[in-house]
């Protein structure tokens, strides 16, 4: 009886083990990229009370468009350049291309004008090739001389490579940020790791392929911020009107969203389990090479230099079939011993009577 209960408890504990292997692929899932330029605006001294006006007006007067930041974009040798005819006119607009889609967002950045900056995110529609940097991303970032003159040697770009291939989150720890300086050529190597988990009672995981853990965290942050605010940012999935003035967005980012990052958003009891199939990108930025001193642009190559991918697969160490097998063997052994004992008792009694 004790053995049977032990087998049952072992099955309920859901023990697992993990296998590790190296596989080769001809293409990989492409990560999302966000490009932020500093300075993000074309002035250091806005007009008086400009922050109280609508964001669309502020962006029209001082904003730098996507085509002015990303002069050239190639994905597997195919163009993903925003282009001057495809300008992103307002914060909710997108540039939809055959190879990718560009969106934009506003982030808190205490070094820039009004403590906010405008960034552009590339959402690829195709996987990346392997071994050749022209089969990955190729970006030519540009900066006008009058823009660079605003902050001199501090002028730069930041490229965020997002960990989640399905959601470009601005939350701290959800991306790898690489700084790019003007007049440099930069190479970024990508590698990938796949982790396949088994859902158990002690360590559950989400089996829905459309589930995104970073998006779940972002929605959780939005829910925790919404009770104290009367407007929302464009990415927030809550029933509030959009923040329309620069002052509202600045205050929201500084006092709310940025504070959530400092307080570790994963401590908010968000109930965001890990996906049962998780993909993790690893980046390695090579030392930049200096280019022509008269050229203010920067070249960025992002690609997979190897076909190899690390695959970690979690397996059940003690499944239902094993429990039934061991329990059945235990019961069978118990019954077998009992029948032999009954036979010995009956036979002994019978032969004892015959001898008497």
Task: Give a short summary of the structure.
The protein is an alpha+beta fold and about 350 residues long. It has helices at about 1-10, 55-60, 65-70, 145-150, 215-225, 245-260, 320-355; strands at about 15-25, 35-40, 70-75, 80, 95, 100-110, 115-125, 135-140, 155-160, 175-180, 185-195, 205, 275, 275-285, 290, 300-305, 310-315. The two termini are about 40 Å apart.
Topology diagram in text:
Blueprint: H1 2-12, E1 16-24, E2 33-38, H2 55-62, H3 66-69, E3 70-75, E4 78-79, E5 95-96, E6 100-108, E7 116-124, E8 137-141, H4 145-151, E9 156-162, E10 175-180, E11 184-196, E12 205-206, H5 213-225, H6 246-262, E13 274-275, E14 277-285, E15 289-290, E16 298-303, E17 308-316, H7 320-355
Parallel strand pairs: 11-16, 11-17, 12-13
Antiparallel strand pairs: 1-17, 2-7, 2-9, 3-4, 3-8, 5-6, 6-7, 8-16, 9-10, 11-14, 11-15
Helix pairs in contact: 1-7
């Amino acid at each position: 009886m004790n053995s049977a209960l032990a087998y049952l408890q072992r099955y309920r504990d859901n023990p697992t083990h993990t296998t590790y292997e190296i596989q080769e692929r001809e293409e990989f899932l492409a990560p999302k990229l966000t490009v932020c330029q500093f300075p993000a605006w074309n002035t250091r001294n806005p007009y008086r009370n400009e922050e109280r006006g609508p964001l669309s007006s502020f962006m029209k007067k001082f904003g730098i468009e996507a085509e002015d930041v990303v002069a050239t974009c190639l994905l597997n040798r195919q163009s993903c350049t925003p282009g001057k005819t495809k300008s992103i006119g307002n914060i909710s607009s997108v540039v939809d291309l055959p190879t990718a889609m560009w969106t934009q967002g506003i982030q808190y950045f205490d070094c820039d004008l009004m403590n906010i900056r405008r960034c552009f995110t590339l959402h690829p529609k195709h996987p990346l090739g392997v071994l050749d940097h022209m089969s990955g991303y190729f970006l030519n970032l540009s900066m006008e001389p009058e823009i660079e003159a605003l902050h001199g040697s501090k002028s730069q770009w930041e490229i965020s490579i997002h960990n989640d291939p399905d959601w470009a989150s601005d939350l701290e720890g959800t991306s790898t940020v690489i700084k790019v300086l003007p007049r440099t050529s930069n190479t970024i190597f990508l590698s990938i790791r796949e982790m396949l988990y088994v859902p158990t009672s002690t360590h559950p995981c989400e089996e829905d392929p459309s589930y995104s853990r970073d998006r779940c965290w972002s929605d959780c942050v939005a829910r925790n911020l919404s009770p104290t605010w009367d407007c929302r940012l464009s990415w927030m999935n809550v029933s509030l009107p959009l923040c329309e003035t620069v002052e509202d967005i600045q205050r929201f980012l500084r006092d709310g969203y940025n504070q959530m990052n400092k307080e570790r958003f994963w401590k908010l009891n968000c109930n965001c389990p890990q996906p049962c199939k998780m993909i993790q990108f690893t980046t390695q930025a090579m030392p930049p090479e200096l280019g022509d001193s008269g050229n203010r642009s920067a070249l960025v190559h992002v690609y997979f230099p190897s076909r190899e991918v690390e695959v970690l697969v979690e397996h059940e160490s003690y499944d239902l079939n094993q429990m039934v097998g061991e329990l059945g063997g235990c019961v069978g052994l118990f019954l077998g011993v009992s029948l032999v004992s009954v036979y010995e008792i009956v036979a002994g009694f019978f032969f004892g009577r015959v001898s008497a």
